[in-house]
Amino acid sequence: MSMTIKEMQGEILRLKKEKDICILAHSYQAHEILEVADYTGDSYALSKLAAQAPHSTMLMCGVRFMAETVKILSPEKKVLLSNPIAGCPMAEQFTKEAILAYKAQHPTCTVVAYINTTAELKTVCDVCVTSASAVKIVSQLENPDILFIPDCNLGSYVAKQLPNKQIALMQGGCPVHAAVTAEQARQARQAHPQALLLVHPECIPAVAQQADYIGSTSGIMDFAIRSDHTEFIIGTENSIAEHLQYLCPDKRFYLLSKSLICSDMKATTLADVLHCCQGTGGEEIQLPADTITHARRCIDAMISLGG
Ligand code: 13P
Ligand code: SF4
Q: Average pLDDT of 226-239?
C-alpha cells in the first residue's frame, strides 16, 4: 500500500512518541525530515541538544560522525544512524597514526579536531570544534601552537581571525564545498548584484574572501532570516536555500553552485526515518568503551569552551 509524505510523517510522529525516540536532523536534511524532527540545527547545536535530551533512543538524521558524537555523549542510550551509508568523506581523511606521528615531532602542540572526524581520530586530539564554534574555542586555548585537522579551509579561516596563534594545517577538506571556485562566486555575484553572498567556511579562501558573511549552516540561516536584505546567494549545501525559501517566502535565495550537494547528507529518506522508528532500519552505533572515554575528552572540552 502506498503512503503519502503526510501519512509517513504522521506514522513517524506517532511511533517516536510511543517508543521515546528523539529525532535529531542536521540542517542539510530534506525538508520533510526536518518537519518530523525534535531538534534541527548545525552540528554544534545538535551535539549540545543531544547531551541534554531525556529520550532513551536517539535517531540521528545526518552522517556517521554526528551519530558517533551522540553516542559518545550518551553511551547509555540507543543511538541510531538513519542510513548506514551516510558518512562524511572528510571525517576519514587522516588516520590516528598520522596525528600521532605529527605529535611525536611537535610534542607541545594542541590538536584541534573539527567535529567532522571519526570517534577513533578524536581519541588522539585535544579539543573538538564545529564551524560555528571554532574561532571562539581556538581563541581561548592558552597554547598558541596548534595543529588544526582535517579541514584546511576552516583552519585557514580560523587562522585569519586569530593572527596570534600559530596554526598548522593538514591538507584535508570537504570535497563538496572545496569544489566551488572563485570564478563561480564572481559569476553568481554578477548574476545577482543585489544579493548578499553567504558562505560556509569549508569553502576555499578565494571564495570566502568574496563573501558578505561566513558562518556555519545555522549561522547562514539566522543571518538570512534576520537580515533586512531580500536577496541572498547561498554558499553551502543547496538544501539550505530550499529551507530558507520556506522560512522566508518573501525573500529570494540563489544557489552559489548547483553542484553544492552532499550525497551523504542526501542519502537519508523519509522512509529511512520511518523504518528506524519501526525498528527495521538504520544502524545502531556501537563504540568500544575506551574509544568513548578518550573521544569524550575533546567533545566535553568543546562544549565547555564553546558555551
Ligand atoms: P555545520 O557545522 O555548519 O553543521 O557543518 C557541518 C557540515 O558537515 C558542513 O559541511
Ligand atoms: Fe562532509 Fe562536506 Fe557532506 Fe558536510 S557537506 S557532511 S563536510 S562531505
A: 98
Residue 284: strand, helix, or coil: strand
Q: Look at residue 255 and tell me whether its pLDDT is greater than 90.
A: yes
In the reported structure, the alpha carbon of residue 176 is separated from the centroid of ligand 2 by a whole-number distance in angstroms of 7
Atom of ligand 1 nearest to the CA of 63: 8
| Superfamily name and number for 5-87+266-286 | NadA-like (3.40.50.10800)
pLDDT (tens digit per residue) in 90-147: 999 999 999 999 999 999 999 999 999 999 999 999 999 999 999 999 999 999 999 9
Q: What pLDDT, on the 0 to 100 scale, is given for residue 1?
A: 87
Between CA 233 and CA 30 the distance in angstroms is 19
The superfamily in CATH containing domain 180-258 is NadA-like (3.40.50.10800)
Ligand 2 in reach of 66 Cβ (< 6 A): no
- 263 CA closest ligand 2 atom index: 3
pLDDT at 43 over 90: no
Q: What is the pTM of this model?
A: 0.96
Q: For the structural domain made of 96-174+291-304, what CATH number should be given?
A: 3.40.50.10800
Delimit the domains of the chain by residue range: 5-87+266-286, 96-174+291-304, 180-258
Query: Is 180-258 in the same CATH topology as 96-174+291-304?
Result: yes
Of the listed ligands, the closest to the CA of 180 is 2
Alpha helices in the chain (DSSP H): 5-18, 31-34, 43-52, 64-73, 96-105, 119-122, 134-139, 152-161, 182-191, 205-208, 217-226, 239-247, 270-278, 289-306
